[in-house]
Structures are given as structure tokens and as C-alpha cells.
From TrEMBL:
Name of protein: Protein cornichon homolog 1-like
Lipid bilayer topology: Multi-pass membrane protein
PROSITE patterns in the cross-refs: CORNICHON
Family per similarity comment: Belongs to the cornichon family.
Subcellular location: Membrane
A Gene Ontology biological process term: vesicle-mediated transport
One GO term describing the cellular component: membrane
Species this protein is from: Sinocyclocheilus anshuiensis
Residues spanning the signal sequence: none
Length: 152
């Protein structure tokens, strides 16, 4: 069970790092906003046409679903402190998704507004903060796993 959680956590950290790189590419004009948003946001039309490998590149929903999965696992295991530490980020994810721009499909990033300097800076800060949270959480989870293994 712990190995499965650590694997999911590793995937979430990878998604966050890809987000940071994607926004840096936008900032330096390496990619245009439409291509970037097509990479980050899943769309209903494209999901039907694209293979599973390409679907994994759609970053917003998998990150949120993995985090919800973590919280459900902590709830089932009665890890109240760990669940309490994850609730602020889960609440932020829910708020962020509920207050996303109006679009035809799921996703957070609108190609018409993502090049706004304030929004781009906000997305970069959000990515760095989430990466810091995931790394600190990783070491906390690793400590907890080692503590349980040593004490038993």
C-alpha cells in the first residue's frame, strides 16, 4: 500500500514539475498559448481521438485526482494528522477548479488569458508552492513509513 502511495506521489510531483516547465516555456515565448493550453487541459473532442499515452500528458485533472486519492487513503487509514495537512491543498484544488475560466471542456487554463503577466506569474508561483508542498510531504510520508517498519 505504501509503495502504491509513493508511486502516485512521484507521479504528482512529476506533473507539478512539468507544469513549472510549461509556464517557463510560455514566459520565454518558446511555446504559444494555444499549444500550451492544449497540452495542459484535457478536451472532450481530443480525448476520444488520442491514445492513452497522450492522455497522460493532460496535467490538471490527473494531479487533482491523485491528490483526492491520497486524501481518501489517509481517511481510510485513519491518518488524521496527515489528512489535516493535506486538506488545505485539497480545498485549494477544489476552489481553483470551481473558479476556473468558462470554457467548453474541463481544464484550468484559457489560451486567451494565460499570457497575461499576472496570471502567468501566479501560475508559476502556484507550481513552485505545490512542488515544495509535495516534496515536504514526500519526506514526511517516507519518515512515517520508515517509523512504522522499524517499530514493528
Amino acid at each position: 500500500c505504501c509503495l502504491m502511495l509513493l508511486t502516485c506521489f512521484r507521479d504528482n510531483t512529476l506533473i507539478t514539475r512539468i507544469d513549472i516547465i510549461a509556464f517557463d516555456e510560455l514566459k520565454t515565448d518558446y511555446k504559444n498559448p494555444i499549444d500550451q493550453c492544449n497540452t495542459l487541459n484535457p478536451t472532450v473532442d481530443r480525448v476520444k481521438k488520442i491514445k492513452r499515452v497522450r492522455l497522460a500528458l493532460k496535467l490538471v485533472l490527473p494531479e487533482y485526482l491523485i491528490h483526492v486519492f491520497f486524501c481518501v487513503m489517509f481517511l481510510c487509514a485513519a491518518e488524521w494528522l496527515t489528512l489535516g495537512l493535506n486538506m488545505p491543498l485539497l480545498s485549494y484544488h477544489i476552489w481553483r477548479y470551481m473558479s476556473r475560466p468558462v470554457m467548453s471542456g474541463p481544464g484550468l487554463y484559457d489560451p486567451t488569458t494565460i499570457m497575461n503577466a499576472d496570471i502567468l506569474a501566479y501560475c508559476q508561483k502556484e507550481g513552485w508552492c505545490k512542488l515544495a508542498f509535495y516534496l515536504l510531504s514526500f519526506f514526511y510520508y517516507l519518515y512515517g513509513m520508515i517509523y512504522v517498519l522499524v517499530s514493528s
